[in-house]
Structure to design on (299 residues):
């Protein structure tokens, strides 16, 4: 049995479908107020519970061999739909899950994180990720930490102030640092693979196949959409001050700004090798933008 925590999100839902398609028994931890019908439709078992409710976690872990954890509070915090803080969910709650998994005799814990370099301001999300990575390093379970570069579907979305239809994009910093944005589908395939393979590595740093800067992405988007993108810039010093000021008042916005600032500074030393080694043909940013432009032209 595989316990999936975060299955109602886009990434976690993809992992659930891939695991079910490969014939795996999957149990999904789902909050009481969340619609579980898409998960039941694919044959997944549902355990009602919440990372912020420790008593609900031991029953969810009973009979489980592997946990795959993709859950995070940041999207709901940004949307204003959750009163639980990033620390409540991503650090304290995830820590309770690890404890419950250890007590239940879970053998493997696959955890989604992201690269955090020396330029990090240690935002609430970064602090939570680092705390959980440290917690897993001392666990008797076989921990697999997957550190993914930014997801294309998230970073190149309206929520991230990248609006291809309106021809607008926001840039934090200089915008000339190349990163490797990666497809959500590719990370889902990677998580599903390392949940099952016999001897996975303890840490996997991974990105997409195409190193591109924000400037290059914006220029490409303008070409594909046949109109120039209007760019709004936030200088690094402004982003740094805003991140530090917001850490207590708005943990999600501080984490988002901090991630944008780090992406403008930290050089990607990772690539798509972990994907290709597992037979995953990674989607490039260029292909992602082409699909978005074609969808707009077909309206």
């Amino acid at each position: 049995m595989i316990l999936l925590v975060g299955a109602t999100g886009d990434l976690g839902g993809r992992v659930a479908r891939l695991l079910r398609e490969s014939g795996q028994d999957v149990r999904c931890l789902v909050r009481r107020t969340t619609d579980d019908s898409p998960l039941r439709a694919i044959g997944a078992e549902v355990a009602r519970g919440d990372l912020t409710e420790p008593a609900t976690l031991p029953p969810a872990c009973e009979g489980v061999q592997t946990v795959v954890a993709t859950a995070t509070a940041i999207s709901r915090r940004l949307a204003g739909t959750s009163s639980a803080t990033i620390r409540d969910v991503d650090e304290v709650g995830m820590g309770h899950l690890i404890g419950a998994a250890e007590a239940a005799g879970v053998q493997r814990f696959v955890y989604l994180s992201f690269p955090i370099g020396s330029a990090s301001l240690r935002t609430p999300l970064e602090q939570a990720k680092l705390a959980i990575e440290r917690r897993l390093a001392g666990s008797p379970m076989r921990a697999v930490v997957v550190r993914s570069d930014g997801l294309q579907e998230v970073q190149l979305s309206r929520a991230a102030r990248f609006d291809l239809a309106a021809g607008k994009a926001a840039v934090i910093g200089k915008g000339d640092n190349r990163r490797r944005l990666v497809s959500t589908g590719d990370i889902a395939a990677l998580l599903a693979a390392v949940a099952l393979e016999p001897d996975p590595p303890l840490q996997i740093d991974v990105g997409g196949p195409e190193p591109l800067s924000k400037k290059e992405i914006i220029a490409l988007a303008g070409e594909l959409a046949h109109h120039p993108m209007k760019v709004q810039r936030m200088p690094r010093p402004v982003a740094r001050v805003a991140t530090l000021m917001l850490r207590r008042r708005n943990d999600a916005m501080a984490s988002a700004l901090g991630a944008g600032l780090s992406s403008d500074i930290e050089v990607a030393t990772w690539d798509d090798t972990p994907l290709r080694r597992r037979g995953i043909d990674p989607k490039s940013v260029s292909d992602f933008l082409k699909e978005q432009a074609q969808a707009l032209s077909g309206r």
Notes: The chain has a mean pLDDT of 95.
